[in-house]
């Protein structure tokens, strides 16, 4: 390239308002995140209308902070990248509207980015040598996918959840044992105090698809265990429940991923999504990859949560491929991976 390419990435798909400036798809110059977790804790989960209103309040601030932190002006930015799906429709609309307004006013190209592609692309930030193809396990509150990353922006889904996503199961079980929202980090922390072998919870397999996932049965098993203890007036060790539940989820995620890596001949495995920051999953995957001679990549926790840097990275590769969106770009709350 004759010059550095600077991408302004904007993310607002759920409860984080975020913006970032990324240089050449691998170097993060700024990464500003305004989280709404404390606000939504009051309600035990994300309230879409409240999330949308908070995005409106914060979007201009985080964009300005991202540019200031990166020490660049809007005139120096080459393109505006923004998440346009999947996610909460109202939240997405705030980011898309802001990105379109900025791109129009500054006369810059607009590049719509798939939120899950952003999570996958977060691996490129700290693993500079990572290049497709590789196998990636995507685990978040709304998605559990096992995908082949064939090239930048090109994916083949070989496994997906049939019901609850892993992160969704974490939130529901956390609520059932009284931990509240957000469930994933709280179960991860509490599980360190418990015995992961104290309770035998199921490891579900989907009969007609070796690499698909199902977590609703596991969630039901936890609820049944809790109800049974209540009926028998038996004490419940919440830490043991958390540890045993997490072990079940991790076992399934790791076993599916390792089996797929062997069958499809991949030597590199990556993790992506909010649940990729789970310490139990990281430890389990690291051990399994070492035992099977596989290389493992995953982002730092700050890049696992929703952030603008991952959108800037994904946006860079879309921009370099020539992807451009018009002023009719709209939010697509149910956008599928690989769709445009």
Q: Strand share of the residues?
A: 15-25%
Profile the largest sheet: 5 strands, mixed
In angstroms, what separates the terminal alpha carbons? 26 Å
Number of strands: 10
Q: Overview of this structure, please?
A:
The protein has 340 residues and is α/β, with parallel strands linked by helices. The protein has 2 domains: 6-123 and 303-321, 2-Layer Sandwich (Nucleotidyltransferase, domain 5); 133-299, Nucleotidyltransferase, domain 5 (2-Layer Sandwich), CATH 3.30.420.40. The protein is 44% helix and 19% strand. The protein is built from 12 helices and 10 strands. The chain has helices at residues 37-41, 48-70, 89-106, 115-121, 123-126, 166-176, 183-191, 216-231, 238-264, 279-291, 301-304, 308-320; strands at residues 6-11, 16-23, 27-35, 79-85, 110-114, 134-139, 144-151, 154-160, 268-272, 295-297. The strands form 2 sheets. A 5-stranded mixed sheet has the order 3-2-1-4-5, with helices on both faces. Strands 8-7-6-9-10 form a 5-stranded mixed sheet, with helices on both faces.
How are the SSEs placed, and which strands pair?
Blueprint: E1 6-11, E2 16-23, E3 27-35, H1 37-41, H2 48-70, E4 79-85, H3 89-106, E5 110-114, H4 115-121, H5 123-126, E6 134-139, E7 144-151, E8 154-160, H6 166-176, H7 183-191, H8 216-231, H9 238-264, E9 268-272, H10 279-291, E10 295-297, H11 301-304, H12 308-320
Parallel strand pairs: 1-4, 4-5, 6-9, 9-10
Antiparallel strand pairs: 1-2, 2-3, 6-7, 7-8
Helix pairs in contact: 2-3, 4-12, 6-7, 6-8, 6-9, 7-9, 9-10
